[in-house]
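subagent[fold] <- orchestrator: predict structure for attached chain, return tokens only, no commentary.
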Amino acid sequence: MSDAPSPERLVAGLVKLLTVEPAGEMQFIGKAQKNGVGRMFGGQVIAQALQAAQATVGDGKEAHSMHAYFLRGGKEGPTTSLDVAADFDGRSFSNRRVVASQFEEDGTSRPILNLVASFQKPEPGLEHDDYQMPDVPQPEDLRPDMELRREYADKAGIEGAARQLMLRPRPIDMRTTDKLHWMNSEPRHPSAHSWFRAAATLPDDPALHRAVIAYASDFTLLGTSALPHGLSWMRGELTGASLDHAIWFHRPARADEWLLYATDAPWSGSGRGFNRGRIFNRAGKLVASVAQEGMIRRRKKSAS
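subagent[fold] -> orchestrator:
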């Protein structure tokens, strides 16, 4: 009998993780990943910083864009300090700037991420939607990502900490229509399509749904730029890290309903890869756009 946590428990843990705690005027604390070890997932600090910014904006304004720069790799063990600055509050728009920091063992506070978010009071306006949703299999016809991961780990003989990290239960249910970078070593076109949603129902909080979409948007994105090269982090062939991450929220969406994440990588070079993402709801409407550049390097072989 499996002792894996239920989807409801996993999502409750995600909601708790992304619920930041006030720690003073315009200051918040982002919780640590429970039983977390090693490097923090970039989507976690992005979502927590966005939540801190959202908590300081009133007047019915909603986040419509955010731009973040990763400065250092965060750690899963410690909490994260989130300091917010209110740079602008107008009738229609507001702007917030967030610095996410963690304390080192010597007590030194080191920034790990800067984020700027813009907010707008909803209003009617000129509308057009030029992107067509890709024609891909529906999520019900695809196998869960975790099943594929388990098969790959068994076939590749992945053991120890690497296996534990690869198979750690996720609160996001993902189902890919393509072969991601770790699934094969054949160079292929730099594009991928994956459905995702929270593994269980989320509370009816639009700000939380935006944060969960921001959290999930860091999955599969950087790996798209590895596809033309037939290389993967999972096989120890690459080293990589996100450098920046931007999201534009076009229309409201529920993160506990299936969303299609279509990614492509039009360029890589100079040790970096540029990746784009479009997120569609099941009605085919574009709900968000994403862009990210990351460091991507061939791992140097150790001298024997």
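orchestrator: received. Logging for downstream: The helical segments are 7-17, 42-54, 145-156, 160-166, 206-216. Residues 42-54 form the longest helix (13 residues).
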